[in-house]
Design brief:
Blueprint (H helix, E strand, L loop, with lengths): L1 E2 L6 E8 L3 E2 L9 H14 L10 E5 L10 H8 L7 E5 L5 H14 L5 E9 L5 E2 L2 H12 L3 H9 L9 E2 H5 L1 E2 L4 E2 H12 L3 H21 L8 E2 L5 E2 L11 H5 L21 E10 L1 H6 L6 E10 L8 H13 L8 E4 L4 H11 L2 H6 L21 H4 L6 H15 L4 E8 L3 E9 L1
Helix pairs in contact: 1-2, 3-15, 4-5, 7-12
């Protein structure tokens, strides 16, 4: 648990992100570092200080490309932060971007640094195709064959099925401990809390409707334009659908538990590319560079649970956070809970209001309470906006600050479920 009450105050002074691009074809010509630089370069260009002032860059990325190892250092150098700027990469699956912000916060709270660039990036469309084990073994045997006749013998042992690739994205979205895909863990929540297909589709539709309204009203002013696959300009998250309806959603087939499941492509977050970054600063840096403050980070909590029900991670992390701060649900003005799946958000809401679950799983004497749906993901969530794994945590924090500002509100919590059975939550206060 990271608690900053008795340490240096950690301020968020600015942030920016790319549009989130729903993957619809081949790989994005922009890599994860390209996406990051697109957002962060514009962000730094509008500051009162030079990029060299940034002391470290921390980036969440679940699957950097082979030529982008320690992608944070690469991004720092490409941004012109200088050779002396530290750069390091964090990976906590879906909450990698939130982890990057938490790490940056700890460095500022402890006095190690005064100004840090933190966020996340992901290019899911570039997830690799991998040789299967049989192909790797055959290649190794062929390479070890030193004579002509041994090479011929090795060639004769080749089988066509050796070239069937392993899809890296599917591997990455499958929990190796319980051997369930993230979608299957979502189905588990539907069965556990008796959540209907109609409820899931209704939340998915609401996500699109809210995001579309927010786009029309200009509420996503944290976005900087991005070039798309064809060289055009993308100004908004392109996964938001104008034509979504309950009738269309109802026609979609189960994606993970065929043929009886309820989780579909329509009530799940899509495969997405994107990046989001924030500048964090100490009080000394705020004064030195005369920075405008969006808000401060009060506390961050992390929790772990059974990977088979990983979607309930936010419930556990939020419970720890509220308890540590001696707050109730009613003390929080606005919420951002990542919509990995519609059923996952619905299950979190039901679990928080379920006395038995709160007593047996959370150690509470009573139900945590009810989150007002009008204060949750008010501008839509990941089902519409998208969920580039490494970037989503940073997006939630950045947009929550925008929501608090727009509504002249004080407190907000951003939270995510995490593949592998974890949850993260961050309490923000607007200055």
């Amino acid at each position: 648990m990271a608690n900053y009450k008795t340490k240096n105050t950690v301020y968020i002074v600015d942030g920016l992100r790319t549009p989130f691009i729903k993957v619809q074809g081949g790989p994005n010509p922009l890599s994860a570092s390209d996406l990051a630089v697109t957002a962060a370069r514009v962000l730094l260009a509008r500051q009162s200080f030079k990029p060299e002032v940034i002391e470290e860059v921390i980036v969440g990325c679940a699957s950097p490309a082979p030529d982008e190892m320690n992608i944070a250092r690469l991004i720092a150098l490409r941004l012109g932060c200088g050779d002396k700027c530290l750069g390091w990469t964090v990976q906590r699956n879906c909450a990698s971007g939130l982890q990057a912000i938490d790490c940056a916060s700890q460095d500022i709270a402890s006095g190690r640094h005064d100004i840090v660039l933190a966020g996340g990036t992901e290019c899911m469309s570039r997830a690799p195709l991998i040789f299967n084990d049989a192909m790797v073994e055959w290649l190794a045997n062929f390479k070890m064959s030193r004579t002509f006749f041994k090479k011929i013998k090795a060639l004769m042992q080749f089988r066509p099925q050796f070239i069937i690739p392993v899809i890296g994205l599917l591997k990455g979205l499958t929990d190796p401990y319980v051997n369930l895909s993230m979608g299957q863990t979502a189905e588990n929540l539907g069965y556990q809390f008796n959540i209907s297909r109609e409820e899931m589709d209704a939340l998915a539709l609401s996500s699109h409707e809210r995001a579309l309204f927010a786009q029309e009203q200009g509420y996503f002013n944290e976005i900087t334009p991005l070039c798309d696959w064809q060289g055009g300009i993308v100004e908004f998250d392109n996964g938001v659908r104008l034509d979504s309806s309950l009738e269309k959603l109802a026609k979609l087939k189960p994606a993970f538990d065929k043929p009886f499941g309820n989780v579909t492509a329509g009530n799940s977050s899509p495969v997405t590319d994107g990046a989001a970054f924030l500048i964090l600063a100490s009080e000394a840096a705020v004064k030195r560079y005369n920075l405008t403050v969006l808000g401060k980070i009060v506390e961050t909590t992390w929790a772990a649970l059974d990977p088979a029900v990983m979607g309930l991670g936010p419930v556990h992390a939020i419970t720890k956070l509220l308890s540590a701060q001696q707050l109730s649900i009613q003390d929080i003005d606005y919420w951002e809970i990542n919509e990995a799946f519609a059923v996952q958000v619905l299950a979190c809401l039901k679990a928080m209001n379920d006395q038995d679950y709160c007593q047996t799983r959370l150690g509470l004497s009573h139900a945590l309470g009810t989150i007002d749906i009008k204060r949750l993901n008010v501008d839509g969530g990941a089902i519409a906006v998208g969920h580039p794994v490494g970037a989503s945590g940073a997006r939630l924090v950045l947009h929550l600050l925008q929501v608090l500002k727009r509504h002249n509100a004080k407190r907000g919590i951003a939270s995510l479920c995490i593949g592998g059975g974890q949850g993260g939550a961050m309490l923000l206060e607007r200055m």
